[in-house]
Amino acid sequence: MKGKWAAGIPPRNFTWVIKDRLAVSERPGGFAPNHRKVRRQEEIIWLQVQGFTAVVSLLPSSHNLQAYQEQELPSIHFPLPQSGDTRAVQITCSGSSTAASPPVSACWSTRRSWGIG
Fold it and tell me: N or C terminus of the chain with fewer C-beta within 10 Å?
């Protein structure tokens, strides 16, 4: 890939929750069941170029996990149910980090790994 697209494009609605530590965004490629594969690839490239080293997926489904693996971006999946009690997932997710954990993005982790492999 050459030119301005070599650095990818930021995922939609990307926002830092805690600057350089925790961020959230829409699922790479969009939220619809049928999204653009090229856009997903461009957004994953952007995450890698920005120093993200892992994805933390909170989706109830396994959407995109294979794409992360194919692009060698480690991922961890904490599926939040669409309804009901989410406390068990929240405890599991928060228990996976440490005080020395690097930045994390709610659909990704940035700068260093987040207790993943």
Answer: C
CB atoms within 10 A of CB 116: 13
Q: Are 113 and 71 in contact (CB under 8 A)?
A: no
User: Is pLDDT at 1 greater than 80 in this prediction?
Assistant: no
Are 112 and 103 in contact, with CB atoms under 8 Å apart? Answer: yes
Number of helices and strands in the chain (H, E): 3, 6
For 89, residues 6+ apart whose C-beta sits below 8 A from its C-beta are 58, 78, 79, 80, 81
Which helix or strand (DSSP H or E) is residue 92 part of? helix 87-95
Q: Are 114 and 55 in contact (CB under 8 A)?
A: no
Reported as a single tens digit per residue, the pLDDT across 92-105 is: 555 555 444 444 44
Q: Rounded to an integer, what distance in angstroms lies between the CA atom of residue 32 and that of residue 9?
A: 18
> How much is the pTM?
0.71
